[in-house]
Amino acid sequence: MPVQIIDHYQDAPCRINPILLEKRALLLLELLQCSRQAFNLVLVDDPAMTEYNHRYRQKNAPTNVLSFPAQDGNEIFPGQEDELGDILISVDTARVEAGRENKSIHQRLTELMIHGLLHLLGHDHERSKQEALAMWDREQALLRQLRTKTNSSQERKTMPHLAINVDHVATVRQARGISEPDPVLAAGICELAGAEGIVVHLREDRRHIQDRDVHLLRQTVKTKLNLEMGAAKEIINIALDLKPDMITLVPEKRKELTTEGGLDIIAGEKKLAKTIQKMDKAGIPVSIFIDPDAAQIEAAVDVGATFVELHTGRYCDATSAEERDLEFRLIEQSAELAFESGLRVNAGHGLDYRTTARIAALPTIEELSIGHAIISRAVLVGLDQAVREMLAIVRHPFPEH
Predict the structure, then answer these.
(1) I need a surface site. Which of 72, 230, 282, 380 has the fewest CB within 10 A?
(2) Can you list the positions of beta strands (E) in 83-215?
(3) What whole-number distance in Å separates Cα of residue 223 and Cα of residue 226?
């Protein structure tokens, strides 16, 4: 195997995704035209790194990364044919650096892996200032190429689930004040077409989904029912009685056409924590819909959420490629930060048949919540076909152009 991830880091609060690191390592070998060669990536803590530094560099302190080229005959991990060597990274030090630089731990680990890999290939920034600058330029070029390669890669070990929001079916019904179209029937069609979850937002003003709908859906949904809701007493009591498979706490304003942004957990921390405690006692997992923001992710951990759903609206609404790339990077980094913090990660809002693939390819996202685009498409091709077309994108993502 070209890349072996050896994880000796045992700090439970910091979750590392070995699949993500392996994928990036393989892409790096390809970019460096070393696909037939192999290396080991060893993740350790500061005490272990200090021991290696003391033994091989006569330094009694940890460092972020050490490289041991196989051709040097190092006795730690003996090299074999076509083996470049071993890269040791202290996750403790990388975490500190990531926090200081406002990056996810996976981003920092990737940077250190690139640095270590260049050392294995003979680069050495300590030999001269000129070589240090050349090595830095090469690292930055590889980072840019890796981002491009990652965007164009269609590989992912497990695909995210597709959960469909049927609120807009209810919106059409309520416009006429009659019984059709029925969002409960629509949910059944979505499940038969392959959807792996149904999402509904029971608003205080009952502008679309009604109490009757959620009670019937609780009885008929065969996959997973996700109840979106504000943290209002009446709706909390309904959720506790209904016992959906999960709830997603969202902001709610009476004059908004749709949810306009993520929930500010920091501003409502005490109220949200009490709501989550009630749901926990009832055995109902809680997700919180937030903007891709590090402070909100930290707050989600503090209040006891199980999931966060990252708001993808600004990414979808971007008016230029540069703006969309920037928003995508923010979502990517936030998804990694949430994963590292022990949260499970979903995403949604505004995703359509053009913008979904890139988000679906992110390895830390478990589920995508999509509604308006699918219901709009269903007007033209039928609901079954609209769901199947979106499922094809989610399960076989390709980069947007």
Answers:
(1) 380
(2) 83-90, 161-165, 197-201
(3) 10
Q: Which residues contact 214 (CB under 8 A, 6 or more apart)?
A: 200, 202, 227, 238, 242, 244
Query: Is the separation of the CB atoms in 25 and 113 below 8 Å?
Result: yes
Residue with structure tokens 């609780």?
218
Closest CA relative to residue 203, chosen from 232, 245, 166: 232
Mean pLDDT estimate for the chain: 89
pTM summary value: 0.74
Tokens of residue 344, six digits: 């499970």
What is the topology classification, in CATH, of domain 161-395?
Answer: TIM Barrel (3.20.20)
Q: Reduced to 3 states, what is the DSSP secondary structure of residue 105?
A: helix
Angle subtended by helix axes 233-242 and 211-220, to nearest 10? 20
CA distances from 181 to 50, 167, 175, 221, 335 (A): 66, 11, 10, 17, 36
Nearest to 259 by CA among 290, 286, 224: 290
CATH architecture for the domain at 3-152: 3-Layer(aba) Sandwich (3.40)
Query: Could you report the per-residue pLDDT of 108-165, keeping only the tens digit for each?
Result: 999 999 999 999 999 988 888 898 999 999 999 998 888 776 655 444 456 899 999 9
How far is Cα 305 from Cα 278, in angstroms, rounded to an integer? Answer: 12
Task: Give yes or no for a contact between 21 and 113, defined as CB atoms under 8 angstroms apart.
Answer: yes
Supply the residues annotated as catalytic.
201, 228, 349
pLDDT for position 231: 92
Model confidence over 287-302: pLDDT tens digits? 999 999 988 998 999 9
Q: HSE, CB side, 13 Å, CA atoms: give it for residue 293.
A: 16
Whole-angstrom distance, CA of residue 357 vs CA of residue 361: 6
CA distances from 273 to 16, 206, 250, 266, 374 (A): 27, 25, 14, 11, 33
Where does the pLDDT of residue 47 fall: very low under 50, low under 70, confident under 90, or very high at 90 and above?
Answer: very high
